[in-house]
Amino acid sequence: MRTVLLAAAIAGAAVAPAHAGRTCEETMMTAVSLGHALDAGQRLRETLDATGSDVALIARQGQDLSKYQLKYSHAGLAWRAAPDQPWRVYELLNDCGTADSALWVDGLGNFFLDDPFSYDALVMVPPPAIAQRLTLALADTAGLHRLHGRRYNMVAYPFSNKYQNSNQWVLEVLAYASASEGRVRTRDEAQEWLKTAGYQPTEMRVGTLTRLGGRMFKANVAFDDHPGTLRYAGRINVVTVDSMQAFLGQRQGWTMQEVKK
């Protein structure tokens, strides 16, 4: 099950597949890969069921980021309306080959359908008070879109609202749920709260040619939102699953579990 939350994005999504910072290469779905995805979704469902929570942050290893000492590349928010209801994954995906994004609702099996590097997953469960606020947020479509930036950038700077990537949207929704009520309603307010709360993005060292190549040849990669002092030194700060894991691991009440194939 996959539906788009933003009606205006349906046309774009229909002509190009949606990805989370992946290439646009078309790959034929095989019975084997479909089976792996469904098995991974089932393992994830069993883990989520066992948490006793109806909402969690989940992540997958969509691509190999080991050269940056990172494992999980893409995060979403898993939610079920009631214990007898199916889990759904709320996530931001890039309209392949473009600089646009849309918010999607997926089933757990769909979360692993785009040929991931592995079928491992990470589950991060919030404490009850934050879980309650996340539940309210995920039920509020207008609120989710207030925290959504349509212009996609795989390496979006965490403290700018010029662009947004998949993990950044999840983190800003978490900021809304974690802040005192009424403090965070916009992306600017979410980013300010994250700074105050001590969130530290992942810093990647990226050479000049890589930066220029990304800007010239990929619609979904840009560096012009990064502060010049960092950009010209090749220090690219981004929201990664690892940085979210480190941040949430320091906050009271969060529990984390890996789901291995």
TrEMBL record:
Pfam families cross-referenced by the UniProt entry: DUF2145
UniProt keyword list: Signal
Superkingdom, taxonomy of origin: Bacteria
InterPro entries: UCP028477
Signal peptide stretch: 1-20
Name used for this protein in its record: DUF2145 domain-containing protein
